[in-house]
Amino acid sequence: MNPVNYLFLSALLFTIGAAGVLIRRNAIVVFMCVELMLNACNLAFVTFSRMHGNLDGQIIAFFTMVVAAAEVVVGLAIIVTVYRSRHSASVDDASLMKL
Amino acid sequence: MSTMNTVHSLWTMAAEPAGKIDSPHIEYAQLSPTLIVLGAAIIGVLAEAFVPRKSRYAVQIGIALLGFAAAFAAVIALAAGGHAKEEAQIAAMGAIAVDGPALFLQGTILLVALVAVFTFAERRLDPQEHGKHVDSFAAQGSAVPGGPAEQAAVKAGFTTTEVFPLLAFAVGGMLIFPAANDLLTLFIALEVFSLPLYVLCALARRKRLMSQEAAVKYFLLGAFSSAFFLFGVALLYGYAGTVSYAGIAEVVEGTRQASDPALAQTMGNDALLLIGGAMLLMGLLFKVGAVPFHQWTPDVYQGAPTPVTGFMAAATKVAAFGALLRLLYVVLPGLRWDWRPVMWGVAIATMVIGAILAVTQTDVKRLLAYSSVAHAGFILAGVTAATPDGISSVLFYLAAYSFVTLGAFAVVTLVRDAGGEATHLSKWAGLGRRSPLVAAVFAVFLLAFAGIPLTSGFAGKFAVFKAAAEGGATPLVVIGVISSAIAAFFYVRVIVLMFFSEPKPEGPSVVIPSVLTSTAIAVGVAVTLVLGLAPQYFLDLAGDAGVFVR
């Protein structure tokens, strides 16, 4: 199978993730969409690695996974603290500082 | 089929005896500033686990100050050893560049971090709670605001001493960011300095809901932008088949062709290069707070604890502009005719929108946030110059601007009423009559922001605009000067408000700080005046440092 198809899939996943970040209102779901975008990047890395015949892309995919895990730790901590103090994880409710 | 064979041969080669793999060569001495800071951060985490709660505060301050000072000494030693000029080299198997701009920016970031430790450690501003001095950070970050757990934590006199290791980790990432010499290192450094900053934003002692809201916004938008950044890295990797700066630059300039005809379709595909480069720039422009990626700045600057805001506003900008310069000047110089018009547009929009929106603000911290957006625009004007003067003027501007920002936010922490910091502008009316010294110091910082002669702001702006004009961006300079004038209007408006209006009877009071914040503000004033009165030595220093190693 032509590896370019995986690039199209990766771009599609990235777009779905980006659209989700912009459309969804629950902070957790927004965050999941960001993770989807990161995984789309991983797919692109691995595909390019296959096309170029070097291993750089696969190594980078591992680094991305570690970064995504670290981001989950920090992100969930922040979202959960906000949920506990407001009983809502909606990004629309976070509007204390509007002009 | 040839690609299949190459991949296959890679796997079989990896199965050969380990003796044939060369172990990587790491230049520890050249990397010592970063290693020292990250080491201090790890020792700080250990201290958090093992040192008794009573003595943690002193121990953590000691570790942070020692670490930053030692790292700064290492930077000076490297610069004195010629690593900024003739000895400049690429270290750690091509991952980190040790050259003039990297060392200059690392030195600046470390000095900013040293001063930031003083503002972080300040414990005389808030009234004592249960007989204990408290700092600007929450007693227990995880406790629900106003809940029983928080009351218990406050009563027990807990403090979040974790802020010092978090600060050290952020500084470690910032030291790598402008020195990174491949896109993977750049991405990891971006995350290493962003993640601690997200946490620091959520830890304010007063107005905790606002602080947590700032952290959520910063985190979600920051993660969103770093996903774009990463996809840009992926596309550039697809374009060049490598993530090293030199390798990509070679493919952009066409000096290296695809070795395999089957790859010709992917490698050197301009669509990948342009889209990838644009996404990479989006990630970096988000970090510097340039229009149209500036929306997070006012909310995060307002909600975060003020010492954190001061550090973030100064150091993040230095690190991110360093990375932006290296990317544009080392990786994409062959693409100059494509990125210059884009950066022109971004610079113009950033200067104008930052200055105009700042005029409408009523909160000091938001005002300083929009002013930082406008300043990002002025710095971008220097970036577009694409000449050696462009590099050195941006370096000088960053050094000058970071200390003014740090000092200005330190002054904001002093003006307080019963609810904590009184950041609404109406409360600052008549401050000059009640406490002339604080108002005068703040006026010096505002004049430096406005770029009035004899302050560092003027020297920086002059250098940047001169470089931009010589680089052929005269219209940009004209717009820059006009938006400086708009910006000067609201800086002067605050000065007039402080000195020429009647103080309100129920207005805020100015707290007498301990020696820590006083030192931070004094350093800010001193750097502002020295760089304003005698800029030549530092301009020469930045000029000497302004050559990237390739």
Automatic annotation (TrEMBL), chain A:
One GO cellular-component annotation of the UniProt record comes to: plasma membrane
Q: By its UniProt entry, which InterPro entries does this protein fall under? A: NADH_UbQ_OxRdtase_chain4L/K (IPR001133), NUOK/Mnh_C1-like (IPR039428)
State the annotated membrane topology for this chain: Multi-pass membrane protein
Under Pfam families, the record lists:
Oxidored_q2
The reactions it catalyses are: a quinone + NADH + 5 H(+)(in) = a quinol + NAD(+) + 4 H(+)(out)
Q: Does the keyword Transmembrane apply?
A: yes
Q: Where are the transmembrane segments?
A: 6-23, 28-48, 60-83
Record carries keyword Amino-acid biosynthesis: no
Listed under GO biological process in this entry are: ATP synthesis coupled electron transport
Q: How does it assemble?
A: NDH-1 is composed of 14 different subunits. Subunits NuoA, H, J, K, L, M, N constitute the membrane sector of the complex.
Role this protein plays:
NDH-1 shuttles electrons from NADH, via FMN and iron-sulfur (Fe-S) centers, to quinones in the respiratory chain. The immediate electron acceptor for the enzyme in this species is believed to be a menaquinone. Couples the redox reaction to proton translocation (for every two electrons transferred, four hydrogen ions are translocated across the cytoplasmic membrane), and thus conserves the redox energy in a proton gradient.
Protein name (database record): NADH-quinone oxidoreductase subunit K
Instruction: Write the gene name.
Output: nuoK
